[in-house]
Amino acid sequence: MSRAAHPAGPRYADVLPAGGVGAPPADLNALDPKVWPITAGRDEETGQLMLGGLAVRELAARQGTPAYVLDEADWRRRAQTWLAAFGDYSRDEPPVHYAGKSFLSKAIARWAAEEGLGLDVCSGGELATALAAEFPAHRITFHGNNKTAAELSRALDAGVGRFVVDSQLEIERLASLAAERGTVARVMVRVTVGVEAHTHEFIATAHEDQKFGFSLAGGEAAEAVRRVFKHRGTLDLVGLHSHIGSQIFDTAGFETAAHRAVGLLAAIREEHGVALPELDLGGGLGIAYTSEDDPEDAFTIVAALKAIVARECFGYGLPTPRITVEPGRAISGPPGITLYEVGTVKPLEGLRTYVSVDGGMSDNIRTALYDSAYTCVLASRTSEAEPMLTRVVGKHCESGDIVVKDAWLPADVAPGDLLAVAATGAYCRSMASNYNHALRPPVLAVLDGAERVLVRRETEEDLLSLDLG
Fold this sequence. Notes:
Elements: E1 41-42, E2 49-51, E3 54-55, H1 56-63, E4 67-71, H2 72-86, E5 97-99, H3 106-114, E6 118-121, H4 124-132, E7 140-142, H5 149-158, E8 162-165, H6 168-181, E9 185-192, E10 214-215, H7 220-230, E11 235-241, H8 252-272, E12 278-280, H9 298-316, E13 322-324, H10 329-332, E14 336-348, E15 352-357, H11 366-370, E16 376-378, E17 387-393, E18 402-410, E19 418-422, E20 443-447, E21 450-455, H12 460-465
Parallel strand pairs: 4-20, 5-6, 6-7, 7-8, 8-9, 9-10, 9-11, 11-12, 12-13, 15-17
Antiparallel strand pairs: 1-2, 2-3, 4-14, 14-15, 14-19, 16-19, 17-18, 20-21
């Protein structure tokens, strides 16, 4: 295979960084520990990427590409870190609930259970996965703005620990279903606090004009609380829930959200004589997709949230409620990478070089959907070639099929090389599709020099099995 640089491909010396593209890194072979999983490194002899003690060329040879690869040790360490940040807590009432929507499989549910996490689900399918993995139902929280009667019934029958109610209709529906079963459903009221986090419009969730929750400013949240209290005996209100968005890098938005949520807690005590025991501040904590991202660590975030809530409660003379959080991406994102094989390399004179891989928007829609930035490296070897401005794209029939919008890769990148994209453990497999009838990649876990298939690669038989002709 030729490793010659492509003559027409623009080099760093040929193009000025534009449109937000920064200068290339000093070392294209380096792996920023802030971005890559904890076990990621380079083999001293071959230069190829190592993860979980495995060489990626061997992994690709056995399992094929594209493939999602999870560093199990990193995933578990992050779960442990979030719990440790809270100090003492009851294992039956964990303060950290893993947001399953970021990525959920039976194995992941088991990891979460083994590490002592709670689990958030937001659909019947996620609930079915958790139950199939025998996740403790009392540690499950059921989210969603349009839970069906069938989903609520299954959750009640399974003994799900919390329902985050999201509409007046749901309150009535859940109360009726609980009454039929002679049981009591523990609920939290989702409050829209009017805080718009510094995030993409489609992943900001606490401003007024959106589908989630009860408006605090409009009085709907207070009315939802009244309605829940009318169903004492079938509904048990255990707290308030607030979620302000995703990929958030500071706690300023949480401070405003906590101030407003605690204000409602005070109003509830004044009107109903009840001090609710729990305040869930949601998730949405950001991770480093690139070296420019600078997220806070779990200990700093938890300490800040505790201080904020304690201060607000002191001002109202309220007992400080138990604080819970729901990290998803912050646990599952950094441990995951995606391996691709390069298929074509197409230089565009004076612009950039397009490097096409064997996956694309069907396995990572986030670049097209949110204009997300990612980091990628040449994974199958190292190279001393000069940097080349590239756009890593997929194989789908769509001009927006972009994996990494602006990437500096070695100028000798060639067909057959492996590329690795960092921080794809969250929202890539869970949002994957069969666009262009693509087959969804497998999810592999690596640990101590061995791989395990968590979710197998789809086959053409899988694809055609649903087509009844």
